[in-house]
Amino acid sequence: MDKKRGFSTIAIHGGQKPDPSTGAIMTPVYMTSTYVQESPGVFKENYDYSRSANPTRTALEKNLALLEGGEHGICFSSGCATIDAVLHMLKAGDHVILSDDVYGGTYRIFDRIFRQLGVEFTTVNLCDEDAFKDAFRAETKLVWLETPTNPLLKVIDIEMASSLAKTHGALLAVDNTFATPYLQNPLSLGADIVSHSCTKYLGGHSDLVGGALIVNDRQLAESLHYIQNAVGAVPSPFDCFMLLRSTKTLPVRMEQHCQNAMAIAQFLDSHPKVKEVMYPGLEKSPYHTVAKKQMKDFGGMVSFVIDGGLKEATRFLESVEIFSLAESLGGVESLIEHPAIMTHATIPKDQREALGITDGFIRLSVGIEDCSDLIDDLTQALDRV
After folding, report:
1. pTM of the entire structure?
2. Residue of 30, 35, 47, 103 marked active site
């Protein structure tokens, strides 16, 4: 598929051809663990064992690479597995700069798994360029960031981050889960690695778990493919099929997510029981200018701080009817959660609160329901606080 074609065309056709044996328009689910060899070590393309390669996964990896404007896609069984794979390229004594309000599961991998293996890391507000510069060491091999961040929705300047990383000989990895390839393409802004939790917007229907890495450099791709195969955290053929189904509708879903999120952010920003709203689409947001520069639109995530503390937040969370109280995000249905207790509980309390993730902090994953119904739901829940 020609990369110059439009995004929606690539989403539907990229990496996929009708099945040559039947003409089936959807890539089949190749439910096989192994492949017959013509002679010892002689097999078709790269297919000798399904942990190493599977035709359904190959189609998905090509599709996601094309959507990100990249050369190589490597798929995994979860978003966390993508982080694990990247960190497996490091060795004891290497240092990583990590953005300071990443997803709690990301922080857990760095803090509880790789720290004990000798990989060091420093958390920094990567929107502060001076603090960013000061965090580099001679041993720094990687910068890992999210933008927008989870859950504070800070928008980090990817071109600035790329420039600093390259100056210090470090790789730049960008978790693009919140923005998706439809809204933001980090490789075109200088990133070396793009990571996705496919569980979220790429899957979009809260029915699968998966992850992906996209890169341009062939040597880097070979290293990550080796880790993918050696460690074995690969997605099932059926999950790959489900993701291929889902990326076809990514553009239309993201348009509605963004439209609804903007309306809800504006509603919350004017509500007397809301102290603060975090959404880069609001012109008052300190991240609005950077977001406009590197994103097509502002995404479907909205965070805010309710007036009060845990008691008020809990009452509000228990009162919603259309929003579902659940972890995860990016599905067609609207979700609501309390980061301090749920997704970011593994981050030490003092560190969470220093960032602003307090007991009154609430995160919304705005779905694609009728926006008026979502606002009515938030209104009635806030009225009960």
Report:
1. 0.95
2. 103
Stretch(es) of the chain classified as CATH 3.40.640.10: 7-247
- The pLDDT value recorded for residue 352 is 85
Q: Tell me the three state secondary structure of residue 277.
A: strand
pLDDT value, residue 46: 87
**Residue 239: CA atoms inside 13 Å, Cβ hemisphere, count?**
20
Q: For residue 307, indicate whether it is catalytic.
A: no
CB 43 within 8 A of CB 37: yes
- Residues linked to residue 95 through DSSP beta bridges, in sequence order: 120, 140
Neighbours of 207 (CB within 10 A): 11
- The domain made up of 250-383 has a fold known as Aspartate Aminotransferase, domain 1 (3.90.1150)
User: So what's the pLDDT on residue 148?
Assistant: 98
Domain boundaries 7-247, CATH class? alpha beta
Beta strand 211-215 pairing with 72-76: antiparallel
Q: What is the C-alpha separation between 245 and 235, in angstroms, rounded?
A: 15
Whether 279 sits among the annotated catalytic residues: the reply is: no
Mean pLDDT, contiguous 10-residue spans, the chain (385 residues):
81 93 94 95 91 97 98 98 98 97 94 97 97 98 98 97 98 98 98 98 98 98 98 98 98 98 98 97 98 98 95 96 96 96 85 89 97 98 96
Catalytic residue among 175, 239, 297, 359: 175
Of the residues 48, 49, 51, 273, only one is catalytic, namely 51
Residues of the chain with CATH 3.90.1150.10: 250-383
Set 200, 253, 352, 363: catalytic member? 200
Residue 51 bears catalytic tag? yes
Q: CB within 8 A of 180, min separation 6: which ones?
A: 196, 201, 202, 250, 254
Q: Distance between CA atoms of 9 and 96, rounded to whole angstroms? A: 37
Residue 275 known to be catalytic: no
